[in-house]
Amino acid sequence: MSPQEIAQLLKDQFGDRITGEALDVLDPWIAVAPEALHEVMEFLRNDERLAMDFLHCVSGVDYFEPDPKKAKRAKFEPHMEVLYHLSSMKHGHRIVIKVFLPRWKNDRPGELPEVPSVADIWPTANWHEREVYDLMGIRFVGHPDLRRILCPEDWVGHPLRKDYEFPDEYHGIRAR
Amino acid sequence: MVTETRAGTGQAEQAEREYLWTLNFGPQHPATHTTLRIVLTLDGERVVDAVPDIGYLHSGFEKLGEHLDYNQYVVVTDRMNYISPLANNIAWHCAVEKLLGIELTPRCKYIRTILAELARISDHLLCVGAAALDLGAMTAFLYAFNQRELLYEIFELVCGARFTTSYTRVGGLMYDVDERFIARVREFIKQFPAAHANITRLLNRNRIFIDRTKGIGVLSREDAINLGCTGPVARASGVTRDLRKDEPYLAYADFDFKVVCMKEGDCYARYLVRMAEMLESLKIVEQAIENLPPGPVNVDVGTRVVLPEKPKVYTTIEGLIQQFEVIMSNRGFETPVEECYGAIESPNGELGFYIVADGSDVAYRARCRPPSFIHFAVFPYLIRGHMVSDVVAVLGSLNIIAAELDR
């Protein structure tokens, strides 16, 4: 199925909960409202015509320019994205599902943005989501075991956020 | 009678739980090869549950990707996988070239294909040899390393380093290969089947090896797909997926080779798949080296993204200007404001890079999808119900590379 057909199918099924699309880029993507993500993913996985049984990767991206001088010239509004690269073993087509999130929940710094977990649809998402949580600071609601995975459990902050400040020391170890 | 009535279900469960004990496996253990830790819950010698704990080798490679330009980052990809660094170099630049829309020259494609396949052979040799070593078979490991030594010499010949190859560049390669390379590869092709047969004879019908691996760590086809497995691990479970065939990149469409699959999904099947894949890789290398096209290895200098060859830099003004334009940090080359996910079939499975470009010569985000990360998440599913000594058998068959696992 072509990306256009997939996008049309999703729009017919979910209406305005499909919030955006870009189909003529290198990897065509479809944006989904965070609250509808779990439902859309379940449809993508279980519908016979789509059968997206393979989740390649869950990645987070932080769009933010920490330098206030450069921020005015930045080509994007500050936000975060979670991407799901999906493909179907059966049909051989692929698509990217995107979720746009604010950098902080309710714009209150320190409150992590939330997105539903898909670990119950694809078990492989379990570790991917833990990694995104650890490095990007996005909370996956409904995840069975949301702990830090790469950083130590007592680490402060989320290193891949663009405004992350590297700590001076960690347990008496000089870090810079 | 009294005790029976008193012992309610809660107490019985507690007694059951007290029976279990916890064993810490790693982070320093000869069979983990590098640093990874597993917390095992045991019932006697039987593994009830395993909780992998990773991050001991976390080096912030993805963060580094936001500071190094597309040519510099290739150095980091070496460090990500010290067993087959060339495959990682190629994976990174395949993703970058997809982003920039560069079509490589035929000669470059062929050389990259040859080196990717040699890297696959060296990776599988280590995996097979070390898996056998962990189970007590020393000789197979030595046979395997003997062959790896020959491959290292070939890698050293093309790029001057044995491990940290950093051989690819945007739109081409560091250097072209010469006649000596071709002669060495031909020599390798000639003698490798004998060494392969030696390992086969030692292990394939070895009673101890079969007892230790057959029926251990069984992964069904459905689980393999749901858990995101790729590469030999998935193919040993009957998933007929190989990016070299399904979405041919580089020059794979030109060659005749088979995708090796098995149905059993146990450690022995994964071993057999790797052994058979080595011979298929050798077939590809043989076809490629005999049909190596002439011509340049780098795309045309006019495209303004590729580093010129060193003689050109020293003798022509165009070459010098080009070198300056690409290297200088305030100039660099321009990229489209786009994002892409590029993946190749690395020896361990699908190795993908998701790159977000913001127009400068440095990636805005360089996400890596390492196969080891996904395969290690599968480990608890494979080991439940088996003996504690099977932990090393399963680990060996998954070929976990901690540097790639933790990045």
Explain what the structure shows.
- Chain A has 176 residues and is α/β, with parallel strands linked by helices.
- Chain A has one domain (3-174): NADH:ubiquinone oxidoreductase Nqo5 subunit (Beta Polymerase, domain 2, 2-Layer Sandwich), CATH 3.30.460.
- In chain A, 22% of the residues lie in helices and 26% in strands.
- Chain A has four helices and nine strands.
- In chain A, strands 1-2-5-4-3 form a five-stranded mixed beta sheet.
- The radius of gyration of chain A is 18 Å and the shape is globular.
- With 407 residues, chain B is mainly α.
- Chain B is built from 18 helices and eight strands.
- In chain B, strands 1-2-3 form a three-stranded antiparallel beta sheet.
- Chain B is 51% helix and 12% strand.
- The longest helix of chain B has 29 residues, at 106-134.
- Chains A and B meet through strand 3 and helix 4 of A and strand 6, strand 7, strand 8 and helix 16 of B.
